[in-house]
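Quarterly update from the structural biology core.
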Amino acid sequence: MIPIGLKGHSEQVVTESLTASSVGSGLARVFATPMMIAMMEQTCHVCVQPFLQPGESTVGTRVDVAHTAATPVGMRVWCDCELIEVDRRRLLFAVSAYDEDGLIGQGRHERFVVDSRRFQLKADEKAMSCPAQNQ
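Predicted structure, tokenized:
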């Protein structure tokens, strides 16, 4: 059982590879929105992993966040998450991201607990049935 109220935290320094200009989401040399979202997803995933059964993992299914402030290269960013709802295999998190100047983004992130092997097999079967994959 994964407890509601479970919290997670991660942090990193913004490098060139994490900027909007580097990942193609814009031209600015600031922390890219897709990288902020990836950090939020990873923080939530890592947070609950110790509570899962062997062979289980989580996959992200929904993200609803606002990126409200720019963070330049070299500045430290961090993410905090809190599990706010559990509905069988569905997990809902409140997520917030900060830099050394304050809040830069916040919202909600939904994940589902899956059997890792079955999930991957289903994805692999989909790839095999796709004509473009078989050329």
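The chain has a mean pLDDT of 96.
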